[in-house]
Amino acid sequence: MKKSILICSFWLFILMIFSSLMTAQTGQKDTTMTAFILEEIELFSDKQLYISGETMWFSLSIRDRRSGSLSSLSKVAYVDLIGTGGLVMTRVKIEVNNGKGHGALDLSKDLASGNYQLRSYTQALRNFGPATFEEQTIIVLNPDQPIVTALSEQRAMSSHEATVSSDGVASISMNKQAYGQRDRVQLNIQLKDKVGRPISGEMALSVSLKGAGEHKKRSPSKTSKLESNPTAEYLPEDIGMYLSGHIVSEEGDQSIEGVKVFLAFPGERSMVYSALTDVDGMFRFVLPKLYGPKEIVIQVEPKYEDQLSIILDDEYYKSPTTEDPAFKLPEAWLDMANASLENASIRSAYGAFEEQVRYIEDSTFYSVPFYGVYDKQYILDDYTRFPLPEFYFEVVPEVRVQGKYGEEILKVANTWSLPNRESPPLFLVDGVPVFDQGKFLKINNKLIESTQIIIDPFWLNTTIYDGIIEISSFEKDARSFDLPESALRSGYLTLLPDRVFSTPNYGVNEGSNLPDFRNTLYWNPTITTDANGNATLEFYTSDVIGDYEIRVQGKDLPVDTKKQYNLSVTKSAN
């Protein structure tokens, strides 16, 4: 009796959890957002001029424009690199924590020389239009194209100055006035408020070859017109990444309410989610932390397979086409450009010897399948490879095979009793639901690596399944069977993983003979000063002789950086 009470209490608890999750995934829009926050993004890159094939490092902070404090609304930011004609060359999604985020973009070696726009926005800002986005111009040079310079005073940077608050002042001191090649640099940073009191804060800092002018950008519009509270056409991603869309009739003229929609990420570890459409036929999934490009499969419940169509919402802002003038490099940038091109060419020649790129990812949500740990697994190579119905009948005692030949039905053998309900198990192939048992059992067993069994009933949003029977193919791509025609299989971009900026330590590797021609000596997006406002960092110069600029951006509060800091590297005596 006590066991039955405990079991009932357990399932009631599970039901409550999934009911709350289901509410967050029904896709309903809040069109009366009385507390809608108008955000403002500040974007900061490690330098102003890049060579195609280099890595661009950047950080961003998002503030509430009314209070000036870091915004707690958006958890995802979008960063686009826009080329000639408004064409988006590459884009990434950045995880935002407490209004702060950072990332890195690998610039294609095929990028043509020109001015490029680095643009950032959030889904919340899309409701206010592109005037609220952050944009700044960078220069990209391709080594295979000749440099054409402009003799006039034309500047490559945008003509709009960034507004800088003096709420914080960062001062920097160095352990030397000039440095040799592969020399140790120590920077001491002190952060004070506007009345001179030391304060703790976070900032991003870069040390790169010195450019020909101030880094300029187009700041979001400050006009009062933008302060009005708009209708939330685009839902703020206030929990994490959202994937949304709507279900319409096959003719496309009617939205359907109450349809079960299934989202799956094919792969080695099953990730399956379910949602219901709202009165407008909309659905929305709140995604866990996933990184990099993924493949998704979206299906509707079987009874609607031949009646409905799935349409995903466009998650990106579409740039208008433009006519850009022919690119000419301002003459003031010529010396730096030639030096950067030469350095990048030498570094590229020795790229194979550089340290492998390292990423830091929070794998909490995809280290195990969505159902937890399976109860039993069978590797098919350990047994005679019967056709699947026979395999489950002969080898897998946790599965019951019923019905005559050619019409077999699989059920999970458990002791659960579901009164007044005959629930089938959930069938998965490489993490993708298969609702047709006949199709599931006809999969070529030579393509299958293993099968996993979950014995207990499993609740997936509004549906309870009598256990789970999963197949894993050798390819792990869910292509060993045909999806319904209404299903949608598509690529999907998730969060950019946190990439580690690597720099040589010549105090340890003093005898290294590998040429070092870095154009960016140092990058750190998360420097934090202590309670006394102090922070110390160390790095080493490269083989490049020249002047470098030290640039800093405050994150916890805007930082006044009117004073310019330069670092000079001369030829070593030895």
Helix and strand layout, with pairings?
Elements: H1 2-23, E1 39-45, E2 49-51, E3 55-64, E4 76-82, E5 88-95, E6 100-106, E7 114-121, H2 123-126, E8 134-141, E9 149-150, E10 168-174, E11 184-193, E12 202-209, E13 217-218, E14 242-249, E15 260-264, E16 272-276, E17 282-286, E18 293-300, E19 308-312, E20 329-330, H3 334-349, E21 359-360, E22 376-379, H4 388-395, E23 399-402, E24 409-412, E25 426-429, E26 432-433, H5 437-441, E27 448-454, E28 458-460, E29 463-465, E30 468-473, E31 488-493, E32 498-499, E33 520-528, E34 534-540, E35 546-554, E36 559-560, E37 565-569
Parallel strand pairs: 2-8, 9-20, 10-36, 25-30
Antiparallel strand pairs: 1-3, 3-6, 4-5, 4-7, 7-8, 8-13, 10-11, 11-34, 12-33, 12-35, 14-17, 14-19, 15-16, 15-18, 18-31, 21-32, 22-27, 23-24, 25-26, 27-30, 28-29, 35-37
